[in-house]
Design brief:
homotrimer, mainly beta, 60s Ribosomal Protein L30, Chain: A, 1 helix, 8% helix, PPC_dom (chains A, B, C)
């Protein structure tokens, strides 16, 4: 396990725009506050969602699209540099009217309403290709 | 997207009372520490739960009640002022013995055991009616 | 409800080792930074998982094993002393390729990739037996 002590650079609450993309909104927040490393939590609701599952054998992401309104019951993620841009690695747990939960890596989702807490760190995080997983990991 | 830099006013860990209401306990914590804005995480177990799903077309909450013991696998939320009171906007992911996950806006739940981390901010958050979503949103 | 104001002792980001145990990695991080109390968030993917559900009537944990790759959509937990060791009380929401979510108390899981934010507190937390729930609780 690799770890790093971090110092806070700033902390923020944000309200996401109805109709915008969930992940792009978080990346836009990171851009505005110039956060090259951050941890975030979020919650709210989306009008649809595209969730990814990583196939650990084939080392490819598999996409599942949900074209329906969903609650965002929990959203956990972090911001790092990837290929020169700020990337918000975003996981989310979504739910249907029945209470059924869906979850995964959130690639895209249309915001209905979203509330975010983002904690930016002084030390930048940089994603680099990892041989074992074929993922872009930091540290 | 609207955002605000916040300053921490205090941070707290709490253990919720068996038999009490999950959300009321968090609001009681906010009252005790006089937090008019806060972000929280929690986990534990409940004896039952009432979960809400927001119908984005009809703009009404739909309730689903689970009258059974459930783990609280993840609980994410925030505290803001709403109609002059402290309101804990609480989302949760719950689970059954089979591992099946349920999730949504947690209106009420009877605590079995609960552990909370709450981070209070200096700047109050106030919920106000939003025309587009018919929800009470902050910022 | 019992609560305590806490002071931060340090905050850390960590990347978990592929093939290691998810919870042990977090406990190893707590050991390295000498955190006798901490709150954490994590996300990533695992190769398998053993999830526990607490039977509130029989007051016994029931185990469910998932021998398949899963996303860790959300992981929330805390570190405290238990029987003289650092214990990471770990809850997680996992997901399958279909997007189906599973959740519960995460006893063990083989890391595929894991990203953690851990916030250590100055004041130690100690778990002690609770008569009502037959669980080891803090505060």
């Amino acid at each position: 396990m690799n770890y790093r002590a971090v110092e806070v650079a700033g902390e923020y609450v944000a309200s996401l725009d109805n109709g915008a993309d969930w992940r792009e909104e978080i990346e836009s927040l990171a851009d505005k506050v110039e956060a090259d490393a951050a941890w975030f939590n979020a919650m709210g609701a989306v009008q649809d969602a595209e969730v990814w599952f990583y196939d650990q054998d084939d080392q490819e992401y598999r996409s599942v699209a949900f074209d329906e309104p969903l609650e965002v019951a929990a959203c956990v993620g972090n911001v790092a540099r990837l290929d020169g841009e700020r990337f918000a690695h975003t996981h989310a747990v979504l739910s249907r009217r029945s209470g059924q939960a869906l979850a995964g890596h959130l690639n895209a989702a249309t915001v209905f309403a979203g509330e975010v807490y983002l904690r930016a760190f002084e030390e930048p995080l940089e994603r680099e290709h990892d041989e074992v997983t074929d993922l872009d990991l930091w540290l």
